[in-house]
Amino acid sequence: MAEAGVNGHCDERKGDVMADRFVWALALLALLCAPLSAAAAERTVVLVMFDGFAPAMADATKTPSLDTIKKEGVWSRHLVPVYPSLSLPNHTSFVTGCWPERHGIVQNGFIDPKLGKLPETADADWVTGCESVWQAAERQGVPSAALNFWNRVSKTKGKLASIANEYKPWAELPSDEAVLTEALGLLKRSDAKRPRLIALYFRGPDHGAHVNGVTSPQALAEVRNADRIVGKLMGVLKALPADREGTLIVGTDHGMMKVDQVINLPRIITRHSIRARDAGDGGSAYLYLDPGESVERVEEALSGYSHAFTVHRTGRYPAPYARLGTSKRLGDLMLVVKPPYYLAGTDSFPSYAYWLGMSWLWSDIFTPDFGGLAVSHGYDSSIEAMHGIFYAWGAGAAKGKEVTRIENIDVHPTVMHLLGLQPGNPVDGKVAADVLAAPEPLPTPAR
After folding, report:
1. Which helix (H) or strand (E) holds 319?
2. Which of 3.40.50.720, 3.30.1360.180, 3.40.50.2300, 3.30.70.2200 is the CATH number of 260-372?
3. Measuring CA to CA, which residue among 234, 257, 260 is closest to residue 246?
4. Is 1 buried (19+), middle (13-18) or exposed (0-12) by CB count in 10 A?
5. How far apart are CA 387 and CA 56, in angstroms?
6. What CA–CA distance (Å, rounded) separates 442 from 417?
7. CA–CA separation, 418 vs 249, rounded Å?
8. Which of 11, 18, 257, 394 has its CA 20 to 30 A from that of 80?
9. pLDDT digits (tens, 9 = 90+) for 333-376
10. What is the CATH number of domain 45-102+130-257+391-435?
11. Where exactly are the structural domains of the chain?
């Protein structure tokens, strides 16, 4: 009986093993025959920046593509810029995930003690100590493309992405349509070296809004064009083959707000015999005092303009501006403008204005009769009008969700997370968990 019982048990186990093997064989066959799952698909992320896109612009005209993302993806009216809420500091934070104190781009114009004044053709060598998304991706073996972003090329290292268009002054950059055409071609590539990160800068509604207003016909025409661009990118991402999936991230560098009076900084400098160079415009400027000039004297001279701007010594910035750091690029004093005033520095005026007495005859603060701005930016990032649009759609993104706010510096680590990569080193931002469809484990740190 004992022997029979043992043999019977063994026969039963043999049957179970054979059944298990049969089930596993069927499962393996089903896996091999089925199309690749979303989790196994290779992911491509398209990162888009439209310059100067305020949420109010999308409210004022038809944007069917962006409306689709509201239903199928995630969006926010509050992509919060770094201070100052100007283009170059925020372009750089957007792609590096770093505060200006780390990346060193502290204004659209500033003076470096060794390099001199930031030229219009400044390249990525002006960035100090931070990696862009394309640099971090390339370092981890992921081919990338960067089109029209200003810090895509280094004079000393060359192109920082596998694909990057030639560096030129802003006015000579390829048109938005040319950038779109190249991007669509990159997405349709099927070779092994195709980029999995495609970063695109578009001029967007910035210029039209500056000159004509946030909801002017000129600005809204550019908004509709931006929406068309988004729709074209979505269409190609949808059409990717089964073994590939795509994610689209859309953001901006800053919002816009109405302004009316110009602070004539060259006139103020002349009136008070301030011995200094200035750099900056819009919502802020820096003063670089000549040797022997008194900080205290200049502070006292400028105290009479407290209704239009405040004055802060480098290294003594209040909390909203502290992330600028303490580098020599900040000069000796920073002027922080109060809207609706906006500041025009030495480089802001056309050459003929000096012949007409701009720096010795014109008023310190005035309302321009012609040639002024309708809207501007560069102000404190806590001002909601400085906030911009944010949209995310596709693989890995949440669906039908509005997010209260997203920090500019969080875009970089979120993009890298969607690619399954580690962020650049260093990085100040964090993954924006609210943007993601579901929690995903972070990739193993690169060694």
Report:
1. none
2. 3.30.1360.180
3. 234
4. exposed
5. 10
6. 7
7. 10
8. 394
9. 999 999 999 999 999 998 889 999 999 999 999 999 877 899 99
10. 3.40.720.10
11. 45-102+130-257+391-435, 260-372
